[in-house]
Amino acid sequence: MSLTDEDIAFIKAHMGDWLAEQSLGRPPAVYEIELRERMVRVEEELKHQRELMREGFAQMDKRFTLAEKRHEELRRDMLARFEQVDKRFEQVDKRFEQVDSRFDEMLRRHDRHFLWLIGFITTVGGLVIAAGKFL
């Protein structure tokens, strides 16, 4: 079933009246005024929402800036602590070098004492053997 041109013209002519009847019997002019008022309220609310969004984005920017500053402070603090740890490692390394040199010196003295003791035992043993031949 298709509409004829006559049917379409009839619908167009009476559409406004039918819509007015659906808006609780208000005349088309009142209905149009209500629609315009609603549009104005919607536009104002949209404007308000835009402002809220802008404020929210501005606050987010501030928070990001503060977070970046805090991260930078933490980074500087961390680098300073690493430098302190590096200095401490250098100090410990120097102390180990001192201990190593003292240990090396102790080993040299021990070697000399050990060699002296071997020489002494060899000499005494030789004397004991030589004395045993004479007795």
Automatic annotation (TrEMBL):
What keywords would UniProt list here? Membrane, Transmembrane, Transmembrane helix
Question: Which stretches are transmembrane?
Answer: 114-132
Q: Which domain of life is it from?
A: Bacteria
Q: What is this protein called?
A: DUF1640 domain-containing protein
* Source organism: Halomonas tibetensis
Q: What is the lineage of its organism?
A: Bacteria, Pseudomonadati, Pseudomonadota, Gammaproteobacteria, Oceanospirillales
